[in-house]
Amino acid sequence: MVKPDFEVIATDGSARAGILSMQRHALKTPTFMPVGTRGSVRTVTSQDLEEIGADIILGNTYHLMLRPGEDLIKGFGGIHGFADWKRLILTDSGGYQVFSLEPKVDDGGVEFKSTYDGSLHRLTPERAVDIQCSLGADIQMVLDVCPPIPAEKRVLEIAVERTHKWAIRGRSHFLSNEKTFENERAQFGIVQGGLDRELRRISAEQIVEVGFDGYAIGGLSVGETRQEMIEPMQISAEGLPKQQLRYFMGLGDPAGLVEAIACGVDMFDCVWPTRLARHGTALTMQGRVNLGAARYAKSDDAIDPEFYASPANRWSRGYIRHLLSVGEPVAGRLLTLHNLAWIIDFMRRARESIVQGTFVDFRNETLQIWG
Predict the structure, then answer these.
(1) 68 lies in some domain
(2) What's the CATH number where 99 sits?
């Protein structure tokens, strides 16, 4: 099976710009993945996402395995056919959602109840691979153990140990089935360790030794401060191969993104831009703007006058504020389109600054506004 090809085309310090080429689609990095939890990014369509320039979206294994179920989705040709999405899809393993439910965990896997109907399910490293194959993910994540922050040292140690053991099993199962894949597929390993520096080093070394197609930094951006996050993130990134993709799971604010890009991270996902949108907040070149505020009632300015490519710039802040005040759902849709287009453009600007050798300036300007 042909493996995905990742090429670093420019660097500026540790920050890097690259191209991931897969049979289905190619994407430029750094890149941001909108989160399509249940097979759809809330309030927008796959056509919308294509039009604003999204190259890859994230699907949630936990929710999709429960509703509508992986067999049904497989019958449609995977998420690509089900949602009519022609570009790349990355699926998480479902582990993060499962561990938020206080499941029963042992060395073999994890047992949990459905959030929908209370039915009992078991997820193992092998089962996570099988489900994601049925979903048709171009890039799938291995099952890991994501401990809370803060956590006791022994809890973190057990999480790192199980993440390593499960990585070996998940990788073996993935490779044993790759000959049956109809399309090119990739599998990423995940580094854990909480905020513990030494455990981060150990986990990165262990996961790299297993040998994946790319690597993710997990277990951060889960409630700690940005300053607490930076050093464990740096240590994790430094332990990963330079010639392969690096993915920070669950990060989406501009200040956090530039700090991660500065460490050499390539891929990101987060619900933050779309969640803000549904609550009336727009991302702009001047920072966050709460369009529900009364002071915007008579404003005829565009949502972000400096972001000319916004798909929602034809409507004024005053109009959006009105829609929000009367509870009109289209307000959330317009702001979602705007915020996603804005963050995708933000990544484009970050990429261009790396190519041009001006990333330090881009980072400093971002932190002045968003820091």
Answers:
(1) yes
(2) 3.20.20.105
Tokens representing residue 371 in the block: 């820091």
25-83 pLDDT, tens digit each: 999 999 999 999 999 999 999 999 999 999 999 999 999 999 999 999 999 999 999 99
Residues 42 and 22 in one domain: yes
| Rounded Cα gap, residues 229 and 200, in angstroms | 12
What is the residue range of 191's domain?
5-269
- Catalytic status, residue 304: no
Number of domains forming the structure of the chain = 2
Tell how strand 104-105 and strand 281-284 pair up.
Answer: unpaired
User: Is 228 in a helix, a strand, or coil?
Assistant: helix
Among residues 138, 253, 266, 269, the one annotated as catalytic is 269
Residue 90 in domain: yes
Angle 33-98-271 (CA atoms, 0-180°, nearest 5)?
Answer: 25
pTM as predicted: 0.97
* Structural tokens at position 368: 């002045």
Instruction: Please tell me whether the peptide bond between 30 and the residue prior to it is cis, using omega within 30 degrees of 0.
Output: yes
Preceding omega of 150 cis (within 30 degrees of 0): yes
- 161 and 118 share a domain? yes
**End-to-end alpha-carbon separation of the chain, Å?**
44
* Residue whose token pair is 């597929």: 185
CA pair distance 333, 255, nearest whole angstrom: 25
Q: Does the annotation count 92 as an active-site position? A: yes
Q: How far apart are CA 277 and CA 313, in angstroms?
A: 15
User: Among residues 12, 48, 55, 92, which one is catalytic?
Assistant: 92
